[in-house]
């Protein structure tokens, strides 16, 4: 109980609350401008969070990402251009509703069920994380090695697109993580005598490059959509909320459960949750023929799902330090910077920090309703922001943010290199998220592997000797082997 | 611009071989079997295997797609020039910000980029100056990032 009071004291401070409000506005803005994603919002926020107290920093990221995921629905509904990838699953459906003159209903449903989904994910986080942390206390390097493997495996297998390209992306990330002095042997690797490279590649600069700078390159090449002819919805957004909830609470609940579960899977985040939930909703609907014609049912289920996934993704991030998606990958980096090292011990040593995170999650999802309402009302204004002024400004932000990490121009070079890399990768169908997970999890994987090998005297059997490790190991190996086996089995049958 | 997977695979294969060979030069720790070279070597092997699969897949599609399928922007001189200028401006910032200082460098870069992207000429200097000073105030004054002053050092605040 003391810890909860302490947490409330940490959160209910003027500077923290002001930060949260500002981060919410920033998240709404970035989410509702097509081409600027929730991940990009988070990446741009990180250099600023350096200068905040830990709770304010985490609060800013939680609020900003939740708002951006919701706001992505606004241009999706009004213009058929998803504001963030997490909205892409139901953009066509929502736009069909706008054309039928039901834009208010679609946006109102998005707002209500986004907030409810976010609260559900938070509830699961509050219940599941501490009990999982007790299990995690018994983990040794063997279990952490397998967990990191499991996270990386999910990142490549679950993501959309080609698995082999996901693997290449992952290997690039792991390789980037080996650069520098920071390895168990303390040997400089791939530094070519360069002092800057000794410290390794800073993952925040890499992130800003991969997610923000690559997007700017796409913009200057004329690959962004035109958003100038938008009409803001005029009607009352809150009409019909009671009816919607009564009619569709089952879909909402199913979306919440599935979204939280997918979010908690390491490597799979809000966008995948939305796609899966939309498909599930159609599969179990009594009126599947209405899907695609502007039917609110699928929108409710998937918008519930993508916001619930955000809370779910924090479960493995806080308990094991294994990111659930690319946003929590950034969060883990920030937690380390702020001395709140994720892992089961934080639940025992600093429970007030954990409760503060929970409180912020609840606050952010409640604040989403008025802030989201304001964003929808000003949609016309938001989407008319001239992109040829906005994009250069974001580029300047990226440059200064990358500089601020170590106050050196080296960060800007890293940013530029990864911006080009991200652009080329996306152009050729390589997913970017596995690279980021590789950079974050690479050191953890190597350290736990080397420690484990020393403990077991160089015997691989050590990885299966403890029951927990054996269980995790078998799951991981099954994810690798079963699809391969199925593939060859199908081929052999012709 | 989509490059055929076989070409990308070949580049990645060469890269993974280079990484693998270079990793052999890392010093071993006496009495320790798993030193600094183990991880990079494994990664290079995995990357090499992936490249072989990519090459095989790309070869099968070669007849349909050819070596490179150009996106619309790749045929547009205007778009390519804009991309080149954007990249050049970041490099210009990296090189010039320390001697010249943040304010002049950012101002020049923004003016050029706004111009290329078609912002109205009269608005350009006003917007560039306003945004430069806003970013400077936010990061230098509020967040205390030591942005370089360069030639403006005598007037630094």
From TrEMBL, chain A:
Positions of transmembrane segments: 47-71, 107-132, 144-160, 167-185, 197-221, 313-334, 354-376, 388-421, 468-489
Pfam assignment, any one: TctA
Keyword terms, alphabetized: Membrane, Transmembrane, Transmembrane helix
InterPro entries assigned to the protein according to its UniProt record, in alphabetical order: DUF112_TM
Keyword presence, Mitochondrion: no
DUF112 domain: residues covered: 17-437
Protein name per Swiss-Prot or TrEMBL: C4-dicarboxylate ABC transporter permease
Species this protein is from: Skermanella aerolata
Lineage of the species this protein comes from: Bacteria, Pseudomonadati, Pseudomonadota, Alphaproteobacteria, Rhodospirillales
UniProtKB/TrEMBL annotation, chain B:
Domain DUF1468: 7-148
Protein keywords: Membrane, Transmembrane, Transmembrane helix
Pfam families: TctB
Signal peptide positions on this chain: none
Gene source species: Skermanella aerolata
Record protein name field: Tripartite tricarboxylate transporter TctB
Segments crossing the lipid bilayer: 39-59, 80-96, 102-119, 126-143
InterPro entries cross-referenced by the UniProt entry: DUF1468
């Amino acid at each position: 109980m003391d810890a909860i009071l302490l947490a409330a004291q940490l959160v209910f401070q003027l500077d923290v609350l002001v930060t949260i409000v500002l981060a919410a506005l920033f998240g709404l803005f970035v989410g509702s401008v097509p081409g600027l994603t929730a991940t990009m919002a988070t990446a741009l926020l990180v250099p600023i969070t350096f200068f905040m107290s830990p709770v304010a920093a985490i609060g800013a990221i939680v609020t900003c990402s939740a708002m951006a995921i919701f706001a992505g629905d606004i241009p999706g509904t009004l213009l058929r251009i998803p504001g963030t990838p997490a909205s892409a699953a139901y953009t066509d459906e929502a736009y069909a509703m706008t054309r039928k003159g039901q834009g208010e209903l679609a946006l109102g449903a998005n707002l209500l069920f986004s907030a409810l989904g976010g609260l559900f994910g938070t509830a699961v986080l509050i219940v599941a994380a501490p009990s999982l942390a007790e299990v995690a206390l018994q983990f040794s390097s063997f279990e952490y090695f397998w967990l990191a493997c499991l996270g990386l495996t999910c990142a490549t297998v679950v993501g959309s697109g080609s698995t082999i390209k996901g693997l290449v992306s992952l290997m690039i990330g792991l390789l980037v993580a080996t650069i520098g002095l920071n390895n168990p042997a303390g040997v400089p690797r791939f530094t070519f005598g360069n002092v800057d490279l000794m410290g390794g590649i800073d993952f925040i600069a890499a992130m800003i490059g991969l997610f923000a700078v690559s997007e700017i390159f796409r913009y200057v090449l004329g690959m962004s959509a035109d958003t100038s002819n938008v009409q803001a919805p005029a009607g009352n957004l809150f009409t019909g909320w009671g009816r919607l909830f009564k009619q569709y609470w089952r879909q909402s609940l199913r979306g919440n459960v599935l979204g939280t579960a997918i979010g908690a899977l390491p490597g799979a985040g809000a966008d995948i949750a939305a796609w899966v939930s939309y498909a599930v909703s159609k599969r179990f609907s009594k009126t599947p023929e209405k899907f695609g014609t502007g039917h609110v049912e699928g929108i409710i289920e998937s918008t519930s799902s993508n916001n619930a996934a955000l809370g779910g993704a924090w479960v493995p991030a806080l308990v094991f330090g294994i990111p659930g998606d690319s946003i929590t990958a950034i969060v883990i980096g920030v937690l380390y910077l702020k001395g709140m090292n994720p892992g089961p011990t934080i639940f025992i040593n600093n429970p007030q920090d954990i409760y503060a995170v929970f409180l912020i999650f609840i606050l952010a999802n409640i604040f989403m309703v008025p802030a989201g309402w304001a964003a929808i009302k000003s949609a016309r204004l938001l989407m008319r922001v001239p992109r040829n002024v906005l994009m250069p400004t974001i580029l300047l932000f990226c440059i200064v943010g990358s500089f601020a990490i170590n106050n050196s121009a080296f960060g800007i070079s890293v940013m530029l290199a990864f911006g080009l890399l991200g652009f080329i990768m996306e152009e050729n169908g390589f997913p970017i998220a596995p690279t980021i997970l590789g950079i974050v999890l690479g050191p953890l994987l190597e350290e736990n592997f080397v420690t484990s090998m020393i403990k077991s005297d160089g015997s691989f059997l050590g990885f299966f000797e403890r029951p927990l490790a054996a269980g995790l190991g078998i799951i991981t190996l099954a994810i690798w082997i079963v699809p391969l086996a199925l593939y060859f089995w199908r081929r052999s049958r012709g | 611009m989509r490059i055929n997977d076989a070409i990308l695979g070949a580049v990645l294969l060469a890269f993974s071989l280079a990484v693998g060979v270079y990793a052999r030069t890392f010093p071993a720790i006496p009495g320790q079997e798993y030193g600094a070279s183990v991880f990079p070597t494994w990664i290079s092997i995995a990357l090499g295997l992936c490249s072989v699969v990519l090459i095989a897949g790309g070869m099968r599609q070669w007849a349909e797609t050819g070596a490179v399928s150009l996106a619309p922007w790749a045929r547009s001189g205007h778009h390519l020039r804009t991309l080149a200028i954007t990249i050049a401006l970041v490099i210009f910032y990296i090189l010039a910000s320390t001697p010249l200082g943040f304010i002049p460098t950012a101002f020049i870069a923004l003016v050029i980029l706004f111009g290329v992207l078609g912002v109205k000429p009269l608005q350009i200097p006003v917007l560039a100056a306003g945004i430069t000073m806003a970013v400077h105030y936010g990061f230098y004054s509020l967040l205390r990032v030591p942005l370089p002053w360069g030639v403006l050092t005598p007037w630094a605040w």
